[in-house]
From TrEMBL:
CDD domains the UniProt entry points to: UDG-F2_TDG_MUG
Protein name (Swiss-Prot/TrEMBL): TDG/mug DNA glycosylase family protein
Single GO MF descriptor: pyrimidine-specific mismatch base pair DNA N-glycosylase activity
Organism: Allostreptomyces psammosilenae
GO biological process: base-excision repair, AP site formation
The UniProt record lists the keyword DNA damage: yes
Pfam families: UDG (PF03167)
Annotated keywords: DNA damage, DNA repair, Glycosidase, Hydrolase
EC number: 3.2.2.-
Uracil-DNA glycosylase-like domain sequence ranges: 20-186
Length: 186
């Protein structure tokens, strides 16, 4: 099945659109992107832009039994995985979000975590995490700070613009989280 390729007009019309969360109570991992891109907002699917490395990293790390297409995102819930974003509105680039918007997104994310209580929250983007949670020294990997009973892991952004994380290194970092989840680490 071929994915819908939005036209330039559809992409422009998607600016500032919001993408619904894919979330349920008691997930193993809630993955949190920075914000939806225009391609994702136009198609209604998280991490939908060709070249985004989220879906390949999720599969190569062992979170999914096969490579999912963005249109199959709903199958993640059956695997105990969910998707949300720090910034709600769609932009062409994540750096279009300001610090206040990211901090407000951090407050909203903390409320979602308190309501849905995933075992792990995986924030995809260390710079966005630092800003949203005033964690200036945060690095990729497990964080000391938790949200209630939910542990926090910061992953690199899977955007194709994040060139200093190769697809292999990105999958290895996702795999470190998957191993912690499988080991029941809290």
């Amino acid at each position: 099945m071929r994915e819908h390729r939005p036209t330039p007009a559809e992409l422009q019309a998607a600016r500032d659109r919001r993408l619904p969360d894919l979330i349920a109570p008691g997930l193993s991992v809630l993955f949190c992107g920075i914000n939806p891109g225009l391609w994702s907002a136009a198609t209604g699917h998280h991490f939908a832009r060709p070249g985004n490395r989220f879906w390949p990293a999720l599969h190569r790390s062992g979170f999914t039994p096969r490579l999912f297409r963005p249109a199959e995102q709903w199958e993640l819930l059956e695997l105990g995985l969910g998707l949300t974003n720090l910034g709600g509105r769609a932009t062409a680039r994540a750096d279009e979000l300001g610090a206040e918007e990211l901090r407000a997104g951090g407050v909203a994310l903390a409320a979602k975590v308190a309501e849905y209580r995933p075992r792990w929250l995986a924030v995809l983007g260390v710079s966005a995490y630092r800003t949203a949670f005033d964690a200036r020294r945060a690095v990729v990997g497990p964080q000391e700070a938790a949200m209630g009973d939910t542990r926090v892991w910061v992953l690199p952004s899977p955007s194709g613009l994040n060139a200093h994380w190769t697809p292999t290194a990105l999958a290895e970092e996702f795999s470190r989280l998957r191993q912690a989840v499988a080991a029941g680490v809290r």
